[in-house]
Amino acid sequence: MDGGTLYSIGELAQRTGLTVKTIRFYSDRGIVAPADRTHAGYRRYDPDAVARLALVRTLRGLGLGLDVIRRVVDQELTLGEVAAEHAAALDVEISILRLRRAVLTAAAQREPTPEEMELMHQLATLSEAERRRLIDDFLDTVFGGLHTSSPYAAARRSMTPELPDNPTDQQVRAWVELAELSLDPDFRASVRRLTEDHVAHLPVGSPTPPRPDTIAVARDLVGPAVACGITPDSPQADRVVAALTAHCASAHGCPDDAELHCRLLNRLEAASDPRRDQYLQLLALINDWPAPEPLAPVIDWSVTALRIRAAR
């Protein structure tokens, strides 16, 4: 094309697909300046304006502001620099939108009150440091002042959620739900009682972590019976209960008698809180761990079986 060719603003609009009003706006902002004017003051544009406007339209479609676009077309910034900066800004925007969508999705499933909705939003938008403080406060309530050994520290770490830098919607919703759960005073007290009870029955100086050993034993011995459909009141359950009480008696170094059975029943009843399973399920989802087996069916079976036999 002849370098001396000049276009009227109307001709430029036909060549670029933009409106005359839009081109005039860009021209007034100094993004696409006219190469000349007629005696009557009408603007005339050179062929370079066609390429500049094509670039402007592309960059506007990507969401860039006019000030940045002007610097690009004036070669004050390279396209690579602008693309990197804009991509980083979009990452932040996407993260915010993901958090908002997760909160709205959770709200749609739960029908929260306005106060609950506000809490959900606040929990979803906490910074990493704020999330850490919230969970540390919960774990301090559960473990504080009970033990300082490394196994206890490991148990604490195993209950700590670590929301990734780019969480999925599911992980965000799980974090909101877990954070709400950790703020529940009744749940905090329930987990604290389990930990205190376990520590009370450990030998002095025991390195055993604050894991509910009775529950772990019930999981290993009673789990297969639950899976096989053995009911707690059936004769087949007798040998399972006998194995459970014998194992606990051996672990605690005490007789397998009515007193042990009563203590075992009390501990299992205290552990019969579905929120514990809920916390562990949410924790696994947030940390991208394999989903743990629910313990509630095993605990409920054990409690029922022990009650039945205590009443005989």
What does this protein structure show overall?
The chain is mainly alpha-helical and 312 residues long. 68% of the residues lie in helices and 2% in strands. It is built from 15 helices and three strands. The chain has helices at residues 9-16, 20-28, 48-61, 66-73, 79-110, 114-124, 128-143, 150-158, 169-183, 185-200, 213-227, 236-252, 258-271, 274-287, 296-310, and strands spanning 7-8, 36-37, 43-45. A three-stranded antiparallel sheet has the order 1-3-2. It starts with 6 loop residues before the first strand and ends with a helix. Mean pLDDT is 85; it is low at 208-212.
Describe the secondary structure blueprint for this structure.
Layout: E1 7-8, H1 9-16, H2 20-28, E2 36-37, E3 43-45, H3 48-61, H4 66-73, H5 79-110, H6 114-124, H7 128-143, H8 150-158, H9 169-183, H10 185-200, H11 213-227, H12 236-252, H13 258-271, H14 274-287, H15 296-310
Antiparallel strand pairs: 1-3, 2-3
Question: Average pLDDT value?
Answer: 85
Shape estimate: rod-shaped
User: Helical region count?
Assistant: 15
| Spatial strand sequence of the major β-sheet | 1-3-2
Radius of gyration: 33 Å
